[in-house]
Design goal:
169 residues; alpha+beta; seven-stranded mixed sheet; globular
Length: 169
């Protein structure tokens, strides 16, 4: 059974390992490697960071960052979700997104966004079943800077989930 709990610094080694495994696929992010904990902690909202535990082991994580400093965008966040390859297809990602959606709606956040490589079919499917919709594709938005994809232009699919309870007035 998957349990979801708030992420702490104690989870960081496993979070970093899972993140690095996703980056190694070339279909998870433009980043070459996960940041240091201090950068991660500074850039992401502490109240919306979670880990999924399966048999007491970290099997995935989710976190959000604000999209802009302007107060008009206080209800808009961008998220990342990563699942350990050994836990893929077992509901870990869905459990994480469900918890994230609940926490953001409680906090008055009305829009959760992300950019996903079109080749990442599993992530696109996960987001679709969690209530996200595709709002567009940014074509050739940036070049990969490392590994076998170095120098290749990549598209990203923009997904968004609008709250069904926040911002309806």
């Amino acid at each position: 059974m998957t349990e979801v709990e708030p992420m702490t610094e104690a989870h960081w080694p496993d979070v970093r390992r899972i993140w690095a495994a996703g980056l190694a696929t070339g279909h998870a992010s433009f980043a070459a490697e996960p940041p240091a904990w201090e950068r991660f902690d500074a850039d992401r909202l502490a109240e919306h960071r979670f880990v999924a535990l399966v048999d007491g082991q970290v099997a995935g994580w989710v976190a959000v960052s604000p999209t802009a400093a302007r107060p008009e965008y206080a209800g808009v966040v961008e998220h990342s979700v990563f699942v350990d390859p050994s836990a893929a297809g077992h509901g870990v990602g869905r459990a994480l997104l469900d918890r994230l959606i609940a926490s953001t709606e409680t906090a008055g956040i009305w829009s959760i966004r992300s950019a996903i490589f079109p080749e990442n079919a599993a992530s696109l499917a996960l987001h679709r079943v969690a209530g996200f919709r595709v709002v567009g594709t940014r074509e050739r938005v940036a070049r990969f800077g490392y590994g076998p994809m170095a120098g290749k232009w990549r598209d990203v699919v923009l997904v968004e989930r609008r709250s069904r309870v926040v911002g309806l007035d």
